Amino acid sequence: MDAERIAEAIVELAAARGANKTICPSEVARHLGGQDDALWRPLMDPIRDQAIRLEREGAVVIKQGGERVDPKTLRGIYRIAIAKGAD
pTM (2 decimals)? Predict the structure, then answer.
């Protein structure tokens, strides 16, 4: 899957969810790959990579436990929110 398509889907879904709300990376994966585990699960690492890139560019915010997290220390479960002003 093309990295730009993944990035577009992240921003699209996060913006649709709205300010101060988050999406799960698996929502993006299912949006792109469908409901079949064999198709969407392999997208999880590329989605993480694009979420980190988008965070650095200021398009989204990555959160853990409801708080913004530095992408350099990102480990485990996370959520994505549209950055204020990006929607």
Answer: 0.93
